[in-house]
Design a protein that fits this description.
CATH topology of chain B: Glutaredoxin
Low-confidence stretches of chain B: none
Structural class of chain A: alpha/beta
Low-confidence stretches of chain A: none
Shape of chain B: globular
Largest sheet of chain A: 5 strands, mixed
Mean pLDDT of chain A: 93
Distance between the termini of chain A: 38 Å
Oligomer: heterodimer
Mean pLDDT of chain B: 95
Strand content of chain B: 15-25%
Number of domains of chain B: 1
Strand content of chain A: 25-35%
Helix content of chain A: 25-40%
Largest interface: A-B, 19 and 16 residues
CATH topology of chain A: Glutaredoxin
CATH class of chain B: Alpha Beta
Order of helices and strands of chain A: EEEHEHEHEEEEH
Number of strands of chain A: 9
Structural class of chain B: alpha+beta
Radius of gyration of chain B: 16 Å
Largest sheet of chain B: 6 strands, mixed
Number of domains of chain A: 1
Order of helices and strands of chain B: EEEHEHHHHHEEH
CATH architecture of chain A: 3-Layer(aba) Sandwich
Chain lengths: ~160, ~180
């Protein structure tokens, strides 16, 4: 398994965003979607990575895009993490079956039982337009995401 | 340790810079006045400046993480407003040295202590000009791959390594000698 490349249809998913709400890939049809896979809630590097994306959300939303972050942590853990860091985007739980979505996206780290630090930009038709896998200790920043969003042609308003 | 990310907006007139142009080493920090890591970096930078003297040019740009640090934006405004009266670095130091007190009353008090025109400071603090400067810094940081605070760029390349005094000092010396690729 390895990182899925540009032009590949994004594997669908349906994951809990809160204990009683699920989000699926299809919910974002017609919008660009940034998927941020990260190893774990509370670990220092992820915290910084997600904090930067949180600050950059207005810049991302200018491109008709939404952002969601995914790790194998459970919904209660996500909820506490999200509240503590005041994240303005959903954290999805790839919890049961553990890591299935991360595996489908080719970035599950079997030995560690965690998602890799990967970014995907998916267009409104569900096609992957950009993907990136960071070295585990290095926080990627938001530049690659913005560049990818800028390169997606804007569809005419219907 | 030098990342692939590059500083996309080179230093310009509007930047706050210490040290002359055209020197071998240029260190740019993207920082947040309410961030504890940036506070830890603050004396390290001073020590680097003492050791490298005029071989080092240092610039500071704003990267307020406003969701985590509710007073970071106001503190950045205070520094920029002070800059309009030629007191940027004095305010910059004042803010880090008093990081626990960044509320508006304290900021006004710092302006007074620095013998600024406090009415003008209060006006500039709310001005579009100051807000635009902070937003431009933030956006240039995002476009350059800033991935948390503080993020350092050495001669235009993001530095991804450890930023203790000794690590930075060593890397800067290697960059100056041309042995760090």
């Amino acid at each position: 398994m390895s990182l899925l490349q540009k032009g590949t249809p994004a594997p669908s998913f349906k994951l809990h965003a809160t204990p009683d709400q699920e989000l699926s890939l299809e919910d974002f049809r017609g919008k660009n979607l940034v998927l941020v896979f990260y190893p774990a809630d509370w670990s220092p590097v992820c915290g910084d990575e997600l904090a930067v994306f949180n600050e950059v959300l207005p810049m991302i939303r200018r491109h008709n895009a939404e952002l969601v972050a995914i790790s194998v942590d459970g919904t209660w853990c996500h909820q506490a993490f999200k509240e503590s860091r005041r994240f303005g985007f959903p954290l999805l739980s790839d919890f049961e079956p553990k890591g299935e979505v991360s595996r489908n996206y080719g970035i599950y780290r079997e030995g560690d039982g965690e998602s890799g630090r990967a970014l995907y930009v998916i267009d409104g038709d569900g096609i992957i337009q950009w993907s990136y896998l960071s070295p585990v200790g290095i926080n990627p920043g938001a530049e690659g995401i913005l560049k990818a969003l800028e390169s997606i042609p804007v569809k005419e308003e219907v | 340790m030098m990342g692939e990310a590059r500083l996309t907006v080179p230093l310009e007139e509007s930047d706050h810079v210490q040290g002359p142009a055209g020197v071998p080493l240029e260190l740019v920090e993207y920082g947040d006045y309410q961030c504890t890591h940036c506070l830890r970096a603050y004396p390290i930078i001073k020590r680097l400046q003492q050791n490298l003297k005029s071989r080092l040019r240092f610039a500071y740009r704003n990267f307020p993480m406003t969701q985590q640090h509710p007073e970071a934006l106001n503190a950045a405004r205070a520094a920029e407003a002070a800059g309009l009266q030629g007191r940027f670095w004095q305010m910059h130091d004042m803010l880090f040295e008093n990081q626990e007190y960044l509320d508006y009353e304290s900021l006004l008090q710092y302006a007074a202590e620095l013998r600024m025109d406090v009415n003008r400071f209060a006006r500039d603090y709310r001005s579009q000009k100051v807000e635009d400067k902070i937003r431009e810094d933030f956006e240039s940081g995002v476009r350059s791959g800033v991935n948390g605070t503080p993020t350092f760029f050495i001669n235009g390349l993001r530095y991804d390594g450890d930023w203790s005094f000794y690590s930075l000092f060593q890397v800067l010396q290697e960059v100056e000698a041309g042995t760090n690729v």
